Amino acid sequence: MNERDEFALDISEWKSRLEREREEKNRFFILDPRSPIPREERSGLVGKSLSYFPSDPNLRFELTLDEHKKKKKIIVATSKDEDREFIRWGEFRFEVNGNQCVLQAYKSGREEERLWVPFRDKTSGKETYGAGRYLDLEPERHRTTEGKWILDLNRGYNPWCAYSEAYTCPFIPPENWLEVPIRAGEKSYPFKVK
C-alpha cells in the first residue's frame, strides 16, 4: 500500500504505519553509516528514541495545491551563510484549530517533481527545533488519484543540521512561519551532546 491509499486507511492502520516509519528512522539514525548523528553520539542512542508528538489525524489533510501562475524564484539563506534558490510553486490552504493557515510549496528547479514544504510554528524553539521543520511531498507517494496532495503534518521532520553542524540546511522562509502551534511530527532532538 502506498501513500495514495492513506486516506482509505482507518485511523488505527494510519497510526500503525506512522509508528513503523518512526521506528525505521530511529534504526537508521543509530545504525546506518549515512546517519546525520555524529558517530560518537550514536551508541548513546541505543535503547532511546527520537521524540515525537502523538499522532493526530486532525493534522493530516488532503488538499489541492493552488499553483502560482507566476512562479517566482526566491533566495533562501542557510545555516552556513550560503544562499539557495527555490521556485515558489504553489500554496496549500488549511485550518488548524479554527485558524486559517497557508504554506508555500517550493521546488529546487522547474523539472523537479518533489515539493519542499518547510514550516515554523509556535512550538519552534520550545518543543521543536528552533529553525523549523520540513515536509517533502513526492507525487508518486503523496498525491491521490484525484490529484490532491496529502499534507500530513505528523510527518514534519527536523532538518539534518538539527543533529550535526556538519550539514547545511535552508532556513524557513518567513512566509511559512505559522502563527499557530503545530503539535505534530518530530520534536527537538533530545540527545545532542554539547
What is the radius of gyration?
A: 17 Å
- Helical fraction equals 10-25%
- Helix/strand-derived category reads alpha+beta
The mean pLDDT is 92
Inertia-based shape: globular
Strand fraction: 15-25%
Distance between the termini: 41 Å
Uncertain segments: none
User: How many helices does DSSP assign?
Assistant: 3
What is the H/E string? HHEEEEEEEHE
Number of strands: 8
- Let me know the largest β-sheet: 4 strands, antiparallel
What structural keywords apply?
3 helices; 194 residues; 4-stranded antiparallel sheet; 15% helix; alpha+beta; globular; two-stranded antiparallel sheet
Structural description of this entry:
The protein is of the alpha+beta class. The chain has a domain at about 50-175. About 15% of the residues lie in helices and about 20% in strands. The chain contains three helices and eight strands; from the N terminus they run ααβββββββαβ. It has helices spanning about 10-30, 40, 140; strands spanning about 60-65, 65, 75, 85-95, 100-105, 115, 135, 150. The strands form three sheets. Strands 2, 3, 4 and 5 form a four-stranded antiparallel β-sheet that branches. The protein is globular, with a radius of gyration of 17 Å. The relative contact order is 0.21. The mean pLDDT is about 90.
Layout of secondary structure:
Blueprint: H1 11-31, H2 39-42, E1 60-63, E2 66-67, E3 73-77, E4 83-96, E5 99-107, E6 115-116, E7 136-137, H3 139-142, E8 149-152
Antiparallel strand pairs: 1-8, 2-4, 3-4, 4-5, 6-7
